[in-house]
Amino acid sequence: MNQKKTNLLRERLLHGYNQELDYGGVSGERIADRLNEIATIGRTEDGGANRPGYSKEEVAAQNKVAMWMKNAGLEVKEDGAGNLIGRLEGKEATRPAIMSGSHVDSVPNGGHFDGVLGVIAALEVVEAWNTIGYQPTKPFEVVVFADEEGARFNGGLNGSEAMIGNFNMEEKKQLVDKEGYSFEEVLKQVQLSVEGYQNAKRDMNEIELFVEVHIEQGKQLEKEGLPCGVVTGIAGPCWLELTFLGEAGHAGNTPMKDRKDALVAASEFIYQVNKLPKEMNDTAVATIGKQLVEPNGVNVIPGKVTLYVDIRDIYQNTRDVLVDNVLNLAEAIADKHHLMFNYVEKTRVKPVPIMSDKQELLAETIEEMDMKPYKLPSGAGHDAMIIGEKVPVAMLFVQSKNGISHNPLEWSDLSDCVQTIHVLKNFVEKIQ
After folding, report:
1. Which residues bind Zn(2+) 2 (predicted)?
2. Number of domains observed in the structure of the chain
3. Helix, coil or strand: residue 108
């Protein structure tokens, strides 16, 4: 790969960058350089990123970050789950630490900002402090969580789950990737082990707060014309597998009045589900993105339809009410069409609220920088969702162009990224 091609991301980031944002030790050029360097690892033919969790590409990206951490004077270690941690001692070393970071793994052919920006943002705070000669009172830790995206096993957040000890090892041992490698075998490929993973649990009393910078992966900040926003909570998903059971029959010989068409019922259900979240609040959502029709023949009345409902909200009580409402709707539609109906709950994860005092302090920090504070929920899961089960968390979103994510076209302007890093730095200094 020639030098010009490897620097394309850097050049695009710096084009139009507002140099006046280089103050307080923060360097836009350094951020651009580092985003560009990580982007060269696992780069795809489409210009995207392919760094699956627990792959040589993820390890290479972590090693690059570890080098930057050491050069910045951090004490660097890796735990048994593959999480990378760089620690800057505070003036009072026995105090619980402030932790910040994200991940460097990606989905197949993903973008160059998801996760990586949060890692570079946290490290840039340390670089800025080194430049201006500032030492925090409390220890500050930069973390790179392993396998957040879950591209290998269709279920991520493995690093953060190990850190808080929230996992079922027997279930993980049953995981197999598309190449036939088990979870244990995949760990061994990157010099890790099941035993090490099990022993990665940390005493979370050592952490006072985890704050994560992440791209929005939506369009709200772009519509508002704002570089960043304050996350109010992280939605917890509930996934339902619903099945409508009717009777398959010949499409030509079965009169309309005698049919038990499972797809007709499922279609009505899909249309009606779209209305339910609006009856709850502005943060609840419900999505049906997968459907299986059987027998699935052109001239056969559908006798069975299985579909999957993804229900989310940042508030557990309204999320759970919405789940009940979805199930009640499915049952009523099945009765109306004289069908059988059943369901299986595939997962139900607690939403993670972000404490109002942390939201207000972030909003105050943004306002002090002559920007409009804007609050918005996170519909996607993040490492902060897992860590938030044990310690308080806070999140900042960076504007995403056109809301595109998990795609080579994923983009956040460098000026927006740098302004958000200033917010992170000032916020961490406020809570010393």
Report:
1. 114, 149, 406
2. 2
3. coil
**What pLDDT digit, counting tens, does each position of 108-146 carry?**
999 999 999 999 999 999 999 999 999 999 999 999 999
- Peptide linkage before 52 cis (omega within 30 of 0): no
Q: Please give the model's pTM, rounded to 2 decimal places.
A: 0.88
Token pair of 358 as six digits: 């942390």
Same domain, 253 and 272: yes
User: Could you give the dihedral angle defined by the CA atoms of residues 19, 24, 30 and 34, in that order, rounded to the nearest 10 degrees?
Assistant: -120
Which helix (DSSP H) or strand (DSSP E) does residue 420 occupy?
Answer: helix 414-430
Instruction: Give the residue numbers of the binding site.
Output: 103, 114, 149, 214, 406
Q: Give the closest residue to 400 by CA, choosing from 219, 233, 213, 214.
A: 219
Is a pLDDT exceeding 90 seen at residue 1? no
Binding residue numbers for Zn(2+): 103, 114, 149, 214, 406
C-alpha distance from residue 243 to each of 49, 293, 343 (Å): 37, 10, 6
Q: Which helix (H) or strand (E) holds 396?
A: strand 393-398
Burial 57-66 (b: 16+ CB within 10 A, else e): bbbebbebbb
For residue 96, which of 220, 10, 188, 209 has the smallest C-alpha distance?
A: 209
Q: Which of 348, 363, 398 is the last residue of a domain?
A: 348
Domain span at 313:
236-348
Give 6's pLDDT tier (boundaries 50, 70, 90).
low
The Cα–Cα gap between 291 and 195 comes to 39
